[in-house]
Design a protein that fits this description.
Blueprint (H helix, E strand, L loop, with lengths): L2 H13 L1 E6 L4 E6 L3 E2 H9 L3 E4 L2 H8 L5 E2 L4 E5 L8 E3 L2 H5 L11 E4 L9 E4 L9 H19 L2 E2 L6 E4 L3 E4 L14 H9 L4 H15 L5 H10 L1 H18 L2 H43 L8 H44 L7 H27 L2 H12 L34 E6 L10 E6 L1
Parallel strand pairs: 7-8
Antiparallel strand pairs: 1-2, 2-6, 3-5, 4-6, 8-9, 10-11, 11-12, 13-14
Helix pairs in contact: 1-2, 5-6, 6-9, 7-9, 10-11, 10-12, 10-13, 11-12, 11-13
Protein backbone atom coordinates (compact mmCIF):
# COMPACT_ATOMS: atom_id res chain seq x y z
CA UNK A 1 0.00 0.00 0.00
CA UNK A 2 1.51 3.30 -1.07
CA UNK A 3 2.15 6.08 1.41
CA UNK A 4 -0.59 8.27 -0.02
CA UNK A 5 -3.13 5.43 0.32
CA UNK A 6 -1.97 4.72 3.88
CA UNK A 7 -2.34 8.39 4.78
CA UNK A 8 -5.78 8.48 3.14
CA UNK A 9 -6.87 5.44 5.20
CA UNK A 10 -5.48 7.01 8.36
CA UNK A 11 -7.32 10.25 7.64
CA UNK A 12 -10.55 8.28 7.14
CA UNK A 13 -10.04 6.55 10.50
CA UNK A 14 -9.27 9.93 12.04
CA UNK A 15 -12.48 11.42 10.73
CA UNK A 16 -14.48 8.51 12.24
CA UNK A 17 -12.94 8.95 15.68
CA UNK A 18 -13.33 11.40 18.51
CA UNK A 19 -11.03 10.57 21.38
CA UNK A 20 -7.37 10.17 20.42
CA UNK A 21 -4.39 9.81 22.73
CA UNK A 22 -0.83 8.51 22.70
CA UNK A 23 0.25 5.55 24.73
CA UNK A 24 4.02 5.85 24.51
CA UNK A 25 5.78 7.01 21.32
CA UNK A 26 4.58 4.34 18.90
CA UNK A 27 1.06 3.48 20.11
CA UNK A 28 -2.03 5.58 19.42
CA UNK A 29 -5.47 4.86 20.92
CA UNK A 30 -8.54 5.94 18.95
CA UNK A 31 -12.21 5.74 20.04
CA UNK A 32 -14.60 5.49 17.09
CA UNK A 33 -17.62 7.74 16.80
CA UNK A 34 -19.05 5.83 13.84
CA UNK A 35 -18.55 2.38 12.33
CA UNK A 36 -15.38 1.63 10.33
CA UNK A 37 -15.07 -1.24 7.86
CA UNK A 38 -12.80 -4.13 8.77
CA UNK A 39 -11.18 -3.79 5.32
CA UNK A 40 -9.82 -0.35 6.19
CA UNK A 41 -8.27 -1.66 9.41
CA UNK A 42 -6.72 -4.60 7.54
CA UNK A 43 -5.23 -2.25 4.89
CA UNK A 44 -3.69 -0.13 7.62
CA UNK A 45 -2.24 -3.21 9.30
CA UNK A 46 -0.75 -4.35 6.01
CA UNK A 47 1.00 -0.96 5.71
CA UNK A 48 2.76 -1.14 9.12
CA UNK A 49 -0.04 0.71 10.94
CA UNK A 50 -1.08 -2.36 12.88
CA UNK A 51 -4.67 -1.92 14.07
CA UNK A 52 -6.08 -3.94 16.93
CA UNK A 53 -9.40 -3.72 18.79
CA UNK A 54 -10.06 -4.26 22.51
CA UNK A 55 -13.33 -6.03 21.65
CA UNK A 56 -12.43 -9.76 21.28
CA UNK A 57 -15.24 -10.38 18.80
CA UNK A 58 -14.09 -7.60 16.53
CA UNK A 59 -10.49 -8.79 16.80
CA UNK A 60 -11.47 -12.36 15.84
CA UNK A 61 -13.32 -10.98 12.84
CA UNK A 62 -10.23 -9.03 11.82
CA UNK A 63 -7.98 -12.06 12.25
CA UNK A 64 -10.26 -14.38 10.23
CA UNK A 65 -10.72 -11.90 7.37
CA UNK A 66 -14.46 -11.71 7.86
CA UNK A 67 -16.33 -8.78 6.44
CA UNK A 68 -18.10 -6.33 8.69
CA UNK A 69 -17.56 -3.15 10.62
CA UNK A 70 -16.12 -2.03 13.91
CA UNK A 71 -19.03 -0.43 15.73
CA UNK A 72 -19.06 3.03 17.25
CA UNK A 73 -17.41 3.39 20.68
CA UNK A 74 -14.93 0.65 19.72
CA UNK A 75 -11.41 1.28 21.00
CA UNK A 76 -8.84 0.86 18.23
CA UNK A 77 -5.11 0.72 18.97
CA UNK A 78 -2.66 1.72 16.22
CA UNK A 79 1.02 0.76 16.33
CA UNK A 80 2.36 3.56 14.11
CA UNK A 81 5.64 3.49 12.11
CA UNK A 82 8.47 5.87 12.99
CA UNK A 83 11.05 5.48 10.20
CA UNK A 84 11.98 8.41 7.96
CA UNK A 85 12.66 6.12 5.00
CA UNK A 86 8.97 5.12 4.71
CA UNK A 87 6.32 6.76 6.87
CA UNK A 88 6.32 8.68 10.15
CA UNK A 89 3.26 9.28 12.31
CA UNK A 90 4.16 11.94 14.85
CA UNK A 91 2.34 14.08 17.39
CA UNK A 92 3.67 17.36 16.01
CA UNK A 93 6.81 18.90 14.51
CA UNK A 94 8.64 18.74 17.82
CA UNK A 95 7.90 15.03 18.05
CA UNK A 96 9.06 14.61 14.44
CA UNK A 97 12.39 16.31 15.20
CA UNK A 98 13.02 13.86 18.02
CA UNK A 99 13.36 10.99 15.54
CA UNK A 100 16.79 9.84 14.35
CA UNK A 101 17.86 11.41 11.01
CA UNK A 102 14.73 13.60 10.89
CA UNK A 103 16.97 16.67 11.34
CA UNK A 104 19.15 15.86 8.35
CA UNK A 105 16.79 13.98 6.02
CA UNK A 106 13.28 14.74 4.86
CA UNK A 107 10.96 11.79 5.65
CA UNK A 108 9.51 9.95 2.68
CA UNK A 109 6.06 10.71 4.13
CA UNK A 110 4.80 11.86 7.49
CA UNK A 111 1.61 12.69 9.34
CA UNK A 112 1.27 15.15 12.21
CA UNK A 113 -1.83 14.12 14.16
CA UNK A 114 -1.70 16.91 16.78
CA UNK A 115 -3.64 15.08 19.47
CA UNK A 116 -2.32 17.27 22.30
CA UNK A 117 -2.92 20.59 20.58
CA UNK A 118 -5.54 22.35 18.58
CA UNK A 119 -3.56 21.87 15.39
CA UNK A 120 -5.11 20.21 12.39
CA UNK A 121 -4.26 16.84 10.95
CA UNK A 122 -1.33 17.50 8.55
CA UNK A 123 0.09 15.11 6.00
CA UNK A 124 2.98 15.40 3.61
CA UNK A 125 4.66 13.17 1.05
CA UNK A 126 8.13 13.95 -0.26
CA UNK A 127 7.81 16.16 -3.33
CA UNK A 128 4.42 17.66 -2.44
CA UNK A 129 3.83 21.41 -2.54
CA UNK A 130 4.28 23.17 0.80
CA UNK A 131 2.46 26.39 -0.02
CA UNK A 132 -0.47 25.58 2.29
CA UNK A 133 1.73 24.06 5.01
CA UNK A 134 2.02 25.73 8.43
CA UNK A 135 4.91 28.21 8.72
CA UNK A 136 6.94 26.05 11.09
CA UNK A 137 6.60 23.07 8.74
CA UNK A 138 7.85 25.14 5.79
CA UNK A 139 10.80 26.31 7.89
CA UNK A 140 11.54 22.70 8.81
CA UNK A 141 11.79 21.75 5.14
CA UNK A 142 13.94 24.82 4.44
CA UNK A 143 16.28 23.74 7.24
CA UNK A 144 16.58 20.26 5.72
CA UNK A 145 17.35 21.79 2.31
CA UNK A 146 20.00 24.02 3.89
CA UNK A 147 21.65 20.99 5.49
CA UNK A 148 21.64 19.26 2.10
CA UNK A 149 23.41 22.29 0.58
CA UNK A 150 26.09 22.04 3.25
CA UNK A 151 26.47 18.30 2.66
CA UNK A 152 27.02 18.81 -1.05
CA UNK A 153 29.77 21.39 -0.48
CA UNK A 154 31.56 19.94 2.55
CA UNK A 155 35.18 18.84 2.07
CA UNK A 156 34.76 15.95 4.50
CA UNK A 157 31.86 14.08 6.08
CA UNK A 158 32.40 12.34 9.42
CA UNK A 159 30.29 9.20 9.19
CA UNK A 160 30.62 8.52 12.93
CA UNK A 161 29.19 11.82 14.15
CA UNK A 162 27.50 13.06 11.00
CA UNK A 163 29.49 16.31 11.19
CA UNK A 164 30.55 18.25 8.10
CA UNK A 165 34.05 19.72 7.75
CA UNK A 166 34.94 22.79 5.70
CA UNK A 167 38.48 24.03 5.06
CA UNK A 168 38.04 27.62 3.94
CA UNK A 169 39.83 30.45 5.73
CA UNK A 170 39.98 28.15 8.74
CA UNK A 171 38.77 24.67 9.68
CA UNK A 172 35.02 24.73 10.35
CA UNK A 173 33.03 21.79 11.75
CA UNK A 174 29.22 21.77 11.55
CA UNK A 175 27.31 19.15 13.56
CA UNK A 176 23.70 18.24 12.77
CA UNK A 177 20.91 19.18 15.13
CA UNK A 178 18.36 21.91 15.71
CA UNK A 179 15.13 22.38 17.61
CA UNK A 180 11.73 23.93 17.05
CA UNK A 181 13.04 27.07 18.77
CA UNK A 182 15.45 27.60 15.88
CA UNK A 183 12.59 27.83 13.38
CA UNK A 184 10.96 31.00 14.65
CA UNK A 185 12.15 33.00 11.64
CA UNK A 186 12.03 32.21 7.96
CA UNK A 187 15.07 30.37 6.61
CA UNK A 188 16.61 31.99 3.52
CA UNK A 189 17.35 28.67 1.90
CA UNK A 190 16.05 29.69 -1.52
CA UNK A 191 18.43 32.67 -1.78
CA UNK A 192 21.38 30.53 -0.68
CA UNK A 193 20.40 27.77 -3.07
CA UNK A 194 20.06 30.21 -5.97
CA UNK A 195 23.53 31.54 -5.22
CA UNK A 196 25.37 28.21 -5.10
CA UNK A 197 23.47 26.58 -7.99
CA UNK A 198 24.05 29.43 -10.42
CA UNK A 199 26.26 28.14 -13.24
CA UNK A 200 27.75 31.58 -13.92
CA UNK A 201 31.17 31.58 -12.25
CA UNK A 202 30.47 28.36 -10.38
CA UNK A 203 34.04 27.90 -9.12
CA UNK A 204 34.16 31.48 -7.88
CA UNK A 205 30.82 31.08 -6.09
CA UNK A 206 32.08 27.92 -4.39
CA UNK A 207 35.13 29.80 -3.06
CA UNK A 208 32.96 32.68 -1.87
CA UNK A 209 30.57 30.24 -0.15
CA UNK A 210 33.39 28.46 1.72
CA UNK A 211 35.00 31.74 2.75
CA UNK A 212 31.75 33.36 3.88
CA UNK A 213 30.71 30.24 5.83
CA UNK A 214 34.06 30.06 7.63
CA UNK A 215 33.89 33.75 8.53
CA UNK A 216 30.21 33.60 9.57
CA UNK A 217 30.72 30.65 11.96
CA UNK A 218 34.14 31.56 13.33
CA UNK A 219 32.80 32.30 16.85
CA UNK A 220 30.64 29.16 17.13
CA UNK A 221 31.41 25.63 18.16
CA UNK A 222 30.50 22.61 16.09
CA UNK A 223 27.31 21.93 18.09
CA UNK A 224 25.90 25.44 17.57
CA UNK A 225 27.07 26.16 14.03
CA UNK A 226 23.97 24.89 12.25
CA UNK A 227 21.54 26.55 14.65
CA UNK A 228 23.46 29.84 14.24
CA UNK A 229 23.19 29.45 10.49
CA UNK A 230 19.43 28.83 10.72
CA UNK A 231 18.86 31.86 12.92
CA UNK A 232 21.05 34.12 10.78
CA UNK A 233 20.33 32.66 7.34
CA UNK A 234 19.22 36.01 5.93
CA UNK A 235 22.50 37.65 7.01
CA UNK A 236 24.48 34.75 5.57
CA UNK A 237 22.63 35.03 2.24
CA UNK A 238 23.39 38.76 2.21
CA UNK A 239 27.08 38.08 2.83
CA UNK A 240 27.16 35.71 -0.13
CA UNK A 241 25.68 38.33 -2.46
CA UNK A 242 27.97 41.03 -1.07
CA UNK A 243 30.99 38.80 -1.53
CA UNK A 244 30.06 38.18 -5.14
CA UNK A 245 29.46 41.90 -5.73
CA UNK A 246 32.87 42.75 -4.27
CA UNK A 247 34.51 40.07 -6.37
CA UNK A 248 32.87 41.35 -9.54
CA UNK A 249 33.87 44.92 -8.68
CA UNK A 250 37.48 43.86 -8.15
CA UNK A 251 37.46 41.79 -11.34
CA UNK A 252 35.67 44.18 -13.68
CA UNK A 253 36.99 44.27 -17.29
CA UNK A 254 38.67 47.62 -16.67
CA UNK A 255 40.43 46.43 -13.51
CA UNK A 256 41.39 43.16 -15.12
CA UNK A 257 42.86 45.02 -18.09
CA UNK A 258 44.77 47.30 -15.72
CA UNK A 259 45.98 44.29 -13.76
CA UNK A 260 47.08 42.65 -17.01
CA UNK A 261 49.01 45.80 -18.00
CA UNK A 262 50.74 46.00 -14.62
CA UNK A 263 51.67 42.33 -14.68
CA UNK A 264 52.85 42.65 -18.29
CA UNK A 265 55.04 45.63 -17.39
CA UNK A 266 56.64 43.71 -14.53
CA UNK A 267 57.31 40.71 -16.77
CA UNK A 268 58.70 42.99 -19.47
CA UNK A 269 61.15 44.55 -17.02
CA UNK A 270 62.39 41.12 -15.95
CA UNK A 271 62.78 40.06 -19.57
CA UNK A 272 64.61 43.30 -20.38
CA UNK A 273 67.13 42.64 -17.61
CA UNK A 274 67.88 39.20 -19.02
CA UNK A 275 68.21 40.56 -22.56
CA UNK A 276 70.48 43.39 -21.34
CA UNK A 277 72.70 40.83 -19.65
CA UNK A 278 72.87 38.84 -22.88
CA UNK A 279 73.81 41.94 -24.86
CA UNK A 280 76.54 42.90 -22.39
CA UNK A 281 78.04 39.41 -22.43
CA UNK A 282 77.87 39.21 -26.22
CA UNK A 283 80.08 42.34 -26.47
CA UNK A 284 82.86 40.50 -24.65
CA UNK A 285 83.17 37.91 -27.43
CA UNK A 286 84.92 40.10 -30.06
CA UNK A 287 87.18 41.58 -27.35
CA UNK A 288 88.21 38.11 -26.19
CA UNK A 289 88.76 37.06 -29.80
CA UNK A 290 90.93 40.10 -30.58
CA UNK A 291 93.08 39.74 -27.49
CA UNK A 292 93.59 36.02 -28.00
CA UNK A 293 94.63 36.25 -31.66
CA UNK A 294 96.73 39.39 -31.12
CA UNK A 295 99.14 37.89 -28.61
CA UNK A 296 99.36 34.31 -29.85
CA UNK A 297 102.56 33.10 -31.51
CA UNK A 298 101.51 32.04 -34.99
CA UNK A 299 102.63 28.49 -35.77
CA UNK A 300 104.79 28.43 -32.67
CA UNK A 301 103.18 25.33 -31.18
CA UNK A 302 102.15 25.06 -27.56
CA UNK A 303 104.71 27.33 -26.06
CA UNK A 304 104.25 28.81 -22.60
CA UNK A 305 102.47 31.95 -23.83
CA UNK A 306 100.34 29.96 -26.31
CA UNK A 307 99.33 27.47 -23.60
CA UNK A 308 98.24 30.32 -21.33
CA UNK A 309 96.18 31.90 -24.12
CA UNK A 310 94.54 28.54 -24.99
CA UNK A 311 93.68 27.96 -21.29
CA UNK A 312 92.22 31.45 -21.04
CA UNK A 313 90.11 30.95 -24.18
CA UNK A 314 88.93 27.57 -22.86
CA UNK A 315 87.97 29.09 -19.51
CA UNK A 316 86.13 31.90 -21.26
CA UNK A 317 84.10 29.45 -23.38
CA UNK A 318 83.23 27.26 -20.39
CA UNK A 319 82.18 30.28 -18.33
CA UNK A 320 79.99 31.64 -21.10
CA UNK A 321 78.38 28.19 -21.47
CA UNK A 322 77.47 28.12 -17.78
CA UNK A 323 76.10 31.64 -18.07
CA UNK A 324 74.02 30.55 -21.07
CA UNK A 325 72.50 27.65 -19.13
CA UNK A 326 71.60 29.93 -16.24
CA UNK A 327 70.02 32.55 -18.49
CA UNK A 328 68.08 29.99 -20.49
CA UNK A 329 66.71 28.57 -17.21
CA UNK A 330 65.59 32.08 -16.25
CA UNK A 331 64.00 32.55 -19.66
CA UNK A 332 62.17 29.24 -19.34
CA UNK A 333 60.86 30.23 -15.89
CA UNK A 334 59.82 33.64 -17.21
CA UNK A 335 57.96 32.08 -20.16
CA UNK A 336 56.13 29.78 -17.73
CA UNK A 337 55.22 32.80 -15.59
CA UNK A 338 53.92 34.66 -18.64
CA UNK A 339 51.74 31.71 -19.65
CA UNK A 340 50.44 31.24 -16.08
CA UNK A 341 49.64 34.96 -15.72
CA UNK A 342 47.80 34.94 -19.03
CA UNK A 343 45.82 31.85 -18.04
CA UNK A 344 44.94 33.35 -14.65
CA UNK A 345 43.67 36.57 -16.25
CA UNK A 346 41.56 34.57 -18.71
CA UNK A 347 40.12 32.47 -15.85
CA UNK A 348 39.08 35.69 -14.13
CA UNK A 349 37.07 36.65 -17.19
CA UNK A 350 39.44 38.58 -19.46
CA UNK A 351 38.87 37.56 -23.08
CA UNK A 352 41.78 36.14 -25.03
CA UNK A 353 41.01 38.69 -27.76
CA UNK A 354 41.61 41.56 -25.33
CA UNK A 355 44.27 43.92 -26.80
CA UNK A 356 46.43 43.56 -23.70
CA UNK A 357 46.60 39.78 -23.95
CA UNK A 358 46.68 39.77 -27.72
CA UNK A 359 49.46 42.35 -28.11
CA UNK A 360 51.48 42.78 -24.92
CA UNK A 361 51.67 39.16 -23.85
CA UNK A 362 52.22 37.89 -27.39
CA UNK A 363 55.11 40.35 -27.73
CA UNK A 364 56.57 39.09 -24.46
CA UNK A 365 56.39 35.52 -25.74
CA UNK A 366 58.10 36.46 -29.01
CA UNK A 367 60.86 38.38 -27.22
CA UNK A 368 61.39 35.47 -24.85
CA UNK A 369 61.74 33.05 -27.77
CA UNK A 370 64.17 35.40 -29.54
CA UNK A 371 66.22 35.82 -26.34
CA UNK A 372 66.47 32.03 -25.97
CA UNK A 373 67.81 31.71 -29.52
CA UNK A 374 70.20 34.61 -28.97
CA UNK A 375 71.54 33.04 -25.78
CA UNK A 376 72.19 29.77 -27.60
CA UNK A 377 73.92 31.59 -30.46
CA UNK A 378 76.08 33.54 -27.98
CA UNK A 379 77.06 30.25 -26.33
CA UNK A 380 78.37 28.88 -29.63
CA UNK A 381 80.13 32.15 -30.45
CA UNK A 382 81.94 32.16 -27.09
CA UNK A 383 84.01 29.19 -28.26
CA UNK A 384 85.26 31.07 -31.33
CA UNK A 385 88.36 32.52 -29.54
CA UNK A 386 89.47 29.02 -28.55
CA UNK A 387 89.02 27.69 -32.10
CA UNK A 388 90.90 30.65 -33.58
CA UNK A 389 93.77 30.38 -31.07
CA UNK A 390 94.26 26.65 -31.64
CA UNK A 391 94.11 27.19 -35.40
CA UNK A 392 96.73 29.95 -35.19
CA UNK A 393 98.99 27.89 -32.93
CA UNK A 394 98.87 24.78 -35.08
CA UNK A 395 98.43 26.06 -38.63
CA UNK A 396 99.62 29.69 -38.41
CA UNK A 397 102.68 31.04 -40.33
CA UNK A 398 105.57 32.06 -38.05
CA UNK A 399 106.70 35.71 -38.27
CA UNK A 400 110.16 36.38 -39.89
CA UNK A 401 112.98 37.16 -37.45
CA UNK A 402 114.30 40.80 -37.73
CA UNK A 403 118.14 41.33 -38.23
CA UNK A 404 120.09 42.29 -35.10
CA UNK A 405 122.30 45.39 -35.35
CA UNK A 406 125.39 45.34 -33.10
CA UNK A 407 127.76 48.31 -32.45
CA UNK A 408 131.28 47.58 -31.31
CA UNK A 409 132.59 49.64 -28.39
CA UNK A 410 135.21 52.31 -28.96
CA UNK A 411 138.69 50.88 -29.10
CA UNK A 412 137.55 47.33 -29.74
CA UNK A 413 139.12 45.33 -32.52
CA UNK A 414 136.72 44.64 -35.28
CA UNK A 415 137.23 41.37 -37.09
CA UNK A 416 136.96 41.57 -40.80
CA UNK A 417 133.80 40.13 -42.18
CA UNK A 418 133.56 38.03 -45.30
CA UNK A 419 133.00 39.90 -48.44
CA UNK A 420 129.36 40.48 -49.19
CA UNK A 421 127.50 41.64 -52.14
CA UNK A 422 127.84 45.37 -52.37
CA UNK A 423 124.74 47.29 -51.54
CA UNK A 424 123.91 50.50 -53.35
CA UNK A 425 124.79 53.57 -51.35
CA UNK A 426 121.37 55.09 -51.64
CA UNK A 427 119.74 52.04 -49.94
CA UNK A 428 122.04 52.01 -46.92
CA UNK A 429 120.87 53.68 -43.71
CA UNK A 430 122.86 56.62 -42.53
CA UNK A 431 124.04 56.58 -38.94
CA UNK A 432 125.22 59.87 -37.50
CA UNK A 433 127.75 59.49 -34.70
CA UNK A 434 128.50 62.38 -32.37
CA UNK A 435 131.96 62.14 -30.70
CA UNK A 436 132.35 64.47 -27.77
CA UNK A 437 135.79 66.22 -27.38
CA UNK A 438 137.33 68.29 -24.69
CA UNK A 439 135.68 71.70 -24.50
CA UNK A 440 137.74 74.69 -25.70
CA UNK A 441 136.99 78.08 -26.93
CA UNK A 442 135.56 78.39 -30.33
CA UNK A 443 135.30 74.68 -30.88
CA UNK A 444 132.14 72.77 -31.78
CA UNK A 445 131.40 69.04 -31.67
CA UNK A 446 132.21 67.41 -34.94
CA UNK A 447 130.00 64.86 -36.53
CA UNK A 448 130.58 62.53 -39.37
CA UNK A 449 128.14 60.53 -41.35
CA UNK A 450 129.37 57.10 -42.08
CA UNK A 451 127.46 54.69 -44.21
CA UNK A 452 127.04 51.16 -42.87
Amino acid sequence: MESKNVIAGLRQLWAASESRCWNGQTTLNVVLTRPVAFELLRDLSAADLIATCDDPAVQRALDTNRSGEAAARANITLHVPRTVDRLVVAEDLKDLLSLPRAQTQEPAAYVLVATRSNGAFFEHTCGDDLTAAPPDVRRYHDAIRLWRILEQRAQHHDSATGSLLFFGIRRTEVSPGFSIADLTDDVSTQQIEDFVNNEDGKATRAEIFASALSEFLRDHGAATCFTALLRGSSRFARRLNEGLAIYLAEHSPEKLAEEAKTAGLGLSEKLEKIISGLETKSLSIPVALLLAVKDVEQGGGFTAINAVIVAAALTYGATMTLVDQSQRALLSLLKTTIAATEKDLMSKGLSETNPVLKTTYQTLKNRGAAATKGSLLMCFASWTPLVCVITAVVFGTPKPTAPVLSVAPIGATVKPQPAQTPVPQDSLPVIRLVIPTAPHSGSEPQSTATPH
